[in-house]
Amino acid sequence: MITVEEWALVRRLHVNEGVSQREIAKRLGIARNTIAKAIKSEKPPKYEGVDRSSGMRSLEPRIRELLSQNARMPATVLAERLAWTGSITWFRETVARLRPEYAPADPADRLNYAAGDQTQCDLWFPPVKIPLGPGQTGSPPVLVMMSGFSRFITAVMLHSRTTPDMLAGMWQLISTQMLAVPRRLIWDNEAGIGRGNHFAAGVGAFTGMLATKIVQLKPFDPESKGIVERANQYLETSFLPGRSFTSPDDFNRQLADWLPTANARTVRRLGGKPIEFIGQDRVMMLPMPPLAPLAPLAPLAPLVGFTERVRLPRDYYVRVASNDYSVDPTAIGRLVDVTATLSQVTVRLDERVVACHDRVWSTAQTITDPTHVVQAGRLRRAFQHPAAPADADLLRDLADYDTAFGVNFDVQGLDEEAV
Question: The pTM is what?
Answer without folding.
Answer: 0.68
